[in-house]
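lol forgot to send this yesterday, sorry. struct tokens for the thing we talked abt
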């Protein structure tokens, strides 16, 4: 099996599991109506997009320049997502 195919399959699985997690968190938010859960959901969404971004860019663009900037942007998204999650936890 080619490495790029395996990497693409794992990226799709990560997206699907992340979407399921966000749906469950949204259902919890509808029950409780607490804004910190909504902020937590936004943070998780940002982290999931940050995780799969280099894989998705690698599927569509084969040049090193696009892959390099996707890696940098991915790290920035992960940092932003972690900060949002920390803020939602500290907010209560």
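and heres what i got for the seq, position by position
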């Amino acid at each position: 099996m080619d490495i790029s195919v395996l990497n693409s399959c794992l990226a799709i699985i990560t997206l699907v599991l992340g979407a399921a997690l966000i749906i469950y968190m949204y259902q919890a938010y509808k029950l409780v109506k607490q804004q910190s859960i909504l902020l937590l959901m936004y943070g998780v969404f940002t982290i999931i997009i940050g995780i799969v971004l280099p894989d998705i860019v690698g599927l569509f663009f084969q040049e090193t320049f696009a892959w390099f900037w996707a890696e940098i942007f991915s790290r920035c998204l992960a940092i932003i997502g972690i900060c949002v999650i920390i803020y939602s936890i500290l907010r209560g």
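Helices lie at 3-32, 35-60, 64-91. anyway ping me if u want another try
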